[in-house]
Design a protein that fits this description.
- This protein is an alpha/beta fold.
- The chain folds into three domains: 96 residues, Ribosome hibernation promotion factor-like (Double Stranded RNA Binding Domain), CATH 3.30.160; 46 residues, no CATH class; 316 residues, pyruvate-formate lyase- activating enzyme, CATH 3.80.30.
- It has 18 helices and 18 strands.
- The chain starts with 6 loop residues before the first strand and ends with a helix.
Length: 495
């Protein structure tokens, strides 16, 4: 297995298929680095990959060669009609060589995209039966039957919600990118409260101002808000007074009468207080998340959390006492030092707490995370055993899979799945994965996703860091013109 520090030369001759070839390589070596070139002489040394395409007369010839450490070079070649998908054929050959050399067979096969359910839904809408869908995806991507089954189950639960989407409505995302500390697995742009506290008054004021500006745009274009989501970071890292001020800015600038879902990630149990929960409930949010990730105290220490498993259970009970009925809980399979038995105990205990929804993520080894320094240890975590247990256990307890996504560098090439009791599926989570609804982002590191009536998708990114968001606020607001244009088109159905 290639270790984290290894840099493998990848030579592309007669083609520019860098993105997909790198994606296939990462299925097997998810934390290695790759250096790309077009020079044949770079295909040398202990390890390399060469992918070649050349045309002779009316035939396209394709060849892939892989040399891996102490293994002899392996080559596959084929000739193809010039109308064939050359990128797919090269990737297919590379995939099979790597399966043979490494002995690894990725559960999602060759599928490298982050939205597998979207492909299932497309085939459902095309009138394909379950067996036809399985055959098509198995043939093209070589996905295992268990993963096809969970993707199909997720699509079944997601499709009725997507079919009722209001194409003229939009969602609102509010970013509060602060946490008490940074977890070792986290790569998000979030900032510890110790370092950010001096910026907080200016940040809250700027965010409230942006919400006012977006609110005016929404009113001027006669746009309806469908869902609202407070994320981060951990929104409850800030004080109850600051949280109230931001939520009042939402209440004062947007018509909440038709909002179908209002979520706040309460997140880390060490930030949850009765005062903050009462502010959240009073100002209209009906869905919250309490996210311990694990209830194992030793694992919590390893990942940099300052709370215990008992703290998480107390926070959950407090939220129920205050009157929240729609509570989500996030867990992570494959955390460092966590055993399969420990994960099972956590999941079983959480199910006994009876949340409305449970999301099971798989540990992702990202370069920006502190955990990446110990990547070789974490690759060996029994994540697949944990995920397999969670699928059966949750579905046996009436939690149905309703949204799913995959990420690069995930242990064992696994997935993240949201499960919910019937009627408690999160619309926002579905919409952001399916990319069928415009989402207006407010705050530092927020992203606005504009979905035009003709299917065109445009992203507008806010500045990543609080000091930059505050200092360059006026520049950022200049980007709102495109938002106005898109909302006008959505509401007038101009293509």
């Amino acid at each position: 297995m290639i270790n984290n520090d290894f840099k493998m030369p990848v030579v592309l001759i007669g083609n520019s298929f860098k993105y997909e070839i790198e994606a296939i390589l990462k299925l097997f070596f998810n934390t290695a680095r790759f250096s790309f070139s077009n020079a044949p002489e770079d295909a040398c040394g202990d390890s390399f990959v060469s992918a070649e395409l050349f045309q002779q007369d009316n035939t396209v010839n394709l060849s892939v060669t892989v040399k891996l450490l102490d293994k002899a070079p392996v080559q596959k070649c084929t000739a193809a009609d010039s109308e064939d998908d050359h990128e797919y054929i090269l990737c297919h050959m590379l995939y099979h060589i790597l399966c043979d050399i490494t002995g690894v067979v990725p559960p999602w096969g060759m599928m490298t995209g982050i939205r597998p359910v979207k492909k299932v839904i497309e085939l459902m809408r095309a009138g394909k039966t379950k067996s036809e869908i399985f055959a098509i995806l198995r043939d093209k991507y070589e996905i295992s039957d268990p993963k096809l089954q969970i993707a199909y189950e997720t699509a079944l639960n997601q499709l009725p919600i997507l079919d009722k989407i209001d194409s003229k409505a939009v969602s609102l995302y509010v970013s509060i990118p602060f946490c008490p500390t940074k977890c070792s697995y986290c790569s998000f742009v979030s900032h510890s409260m110790d370092s950010a506290i001096k910026l907080m008054p200016d940040y809250v004021n700027a965010l409230c101002k942006e919400l006012e500006i977006i609110g005016n745009i929404v009113k001027e274009t006669n746009t309806k808000i469908d869902t609202i989501y407070f994320g981060g970071g951990t929104p409850t890292s800030i004080s109850a007074d600051d949280l109230r001020k931001i939520m009042e800015a939402v209440e004062n600038n947007f018509d909440l009468d038709n909002v179908r879902e209002y979520s706040v990630e309460a997140g880390r149990p060490d930030t949850i207080t009765e005062e903050k929960l009462r502010v959240i409930k009073e100002l209209g949010a009906g869905r919250i998340s309490v996210n311990p990730q694990t209830l194992n105290d030793e694992v919590l220490k390893v990942i940099g959390r300052k709370h215990t498993g008992e703290d998480a259970l107390k926070a959950f009970e407090l939220a129920k006492k205050i009157g929240f009925k729609n509570i989500n809980t996030d867990l992570i399979a494959g955390l460092p030092t966590e055993s399969a038995e420990s994960f099972r105990n956590t999941l079983d205990t959480i199910i006994d707490m009876d949340p409305a929804s449970i999301t099971v993520h798989t540990l992702t080894l990202k370069r920006a995370a502190n955990l990446f320094d110990k990547v070789s240890e974490n690759i060996k975590n029994p994540a697949a055993e944990m995920v397999d247990y969670s699928i059966k256990k949750l579905m046996d307890n009436s939690y149905l899979p309703y949204y799913m996504y995959r990420q690069k560098n995930t242990v064992d090439n696994l997935e993240n799945i949201g499960y919910a009791k019937k009627g408690y599926e999160s619309y926002y989570n579905i919409f952001i994965m399916d990319e069928t609804q415009t989402i207006l982002g407010a705050g530092c590191a927020a992203s606005t996703k504009l979905v035009y009536p003709n299917g065109k998708l445009t992203r507008i990114h806010n500045y990543k860091f609080p000091y930059e968001y505050i200092r360059r606020f006026d520049e950022l607001m200049n980007k709102k013109e495109e938002v106005i244009e898109c909302l006008k088109k959505i509401n007038s159905s101009i293509l």
